[in-house]
Amino acid sequence: MRARHVAGAVAVAAMTVLGTSACSAGPQADPPSSAPPSAGQSASASARDRLRDGLLTQAQLPRGFHLLTAEINSTTTAAPHGPASTVPIASMPCSELGVQSFMTHHAPPLEDVAVGMEQVPEQISEQVPDDAWFGQEALDRYAPGRAAEVMAAIRAAAQRCPSYANALGSGTTTQETVSVTAADVPADDSLVLRIASALPDDPEPYVSEQAFVREGDVILMVQKLVAKKPRAGVEAVLPAAVAAYRAATAH
After folding, report:
1. Least buried of 135, 144, 191, 205, by fewest C-beta within 10 Å?
2. Beta partners for 185?
3. Quick one: which of 3, 27, 30 has its CA closest to 198?
4. Helix (H) or strand (E) holding 207
5. Are 160 and 90 in contact (CB under 8 A)?
6. Rounded distance between C-alpha atoms, residue 220 and residue 243, angstroms
7. In sequence order, what are the residues at sequence separation of 6 or more whose Cβ sits closer than 8 angstroms to the Cβ of residue 31?
8. Taking the model in full, what pTM does it have?
9. Is 171 in a helix, a strand, or coil?
């Protein structure tokens, strides 16, 4: 029961963080004005619409998955959402690797959009646990050349932090183990970041995953929150997400 309580704390913390990236500020309406939008404003709005169109829709999701538009709105939020950190990703604290918002905090994009998704558990019981699938897809657009720098910084941070201790709010300390592999999709650059969180006296870790795929100046990210016995990882959604983005930007 103690391990389950701590795992719940990890999951709640991750779920809280999930809303602090591409949609923490919520949809931002344009300020009221009686004047028609300028050419620059129209171009900016058009770019945001194109980025949003690249997100997965319900029809494009793999079977068994559902969008969570109530939890994570897919409207562009005009990043950045707050003051950017002066600490670059490559040298940020290791504990921030498990926080999806490290990109918008340490390397704010010009625009970002996101949508949440879930896969409902098939069965919940003590004998056959199923942590299901809960996470999000985000698209972050950067200035020319900047996305490649951000990908390199994420890889450098992960390689610098192969393992580290992480103190939870409950007073429990978990041991985190980080692995980095390439995503199984053709792209300009890609990586899958997996963090296994080992609780005291619990031999089976909880795992969170983030896949990053760079397409030109846009980084597509699929995040799966912590789970102990998942049916599938980020690979269950990543190919569909990449295909949806490419289809939306092909014309």
Report:
1. 144
2. none
3. 3
4. strand 206-215
5. yes
6. 11
7. none
8. 0.78
9. coil
Which residue's entry shows tokens 């897919």? 74
Alpha carbons 68 and 208: distance in angstroms, whole number: 19
The owner of tokens 């879930």 is: 118
The angle formed by the CA atoms of residues 43, 187 and 64, to the nearest 5 degrees, is 90
Name residue, tokens 């990908």.
Answer: 151
Across the strands, what pairs with 134? 118
Asked whether the CA dihedral 197, 199, 200, 202 is positive or negative, the reply is negative
Phi/psi for 70 (5° steps) reads -75, -35
User: Which amino acid is located at 84 in the chain?
Assistant: A
Residues 174 and 122: their CA atoms lie apart, in Å, by: 29
pLDDT tens by residue, 162-174: 999 888 777 788 8
What is the rounded distance in angstroms from the CA atom of residue 247 to the CA atom of residue 56? 11
Tokens at 7, concatenated: 């795992």
What is d(CA 223, CA 72) in angstroms, rounded to the nearest whole number? 13
Are the CB atoms for 191 and 159 separated by under 8 Å?
A: no
Report pLDDT digits (tens) over 56-94. 999 999 988 999 866 555 555 555 566 778 899 988 999
Give the whole-angstrom CA distance, residue 10 versus residue 15: 9
Coil, strand or helix: which one is 73?
coil
> Checking phi first, is residue 158 left (phi over 0); if not, alpha (psi -120 to 50) or beta?
alpha
- Give the up-direction half-sphere exposure of residue 143: CA atoms within 13 A in the CB hemisphere: 4
**In angstroms, what CA-CA distances link 112 with 48, 132, 161, 206, 218?**
8, 26, 27, 28, 9
Q: Of 148, 143, 118, which is closest to residue 133 (Cα–Cα)? A: 118
**What length does the chain have?**
251
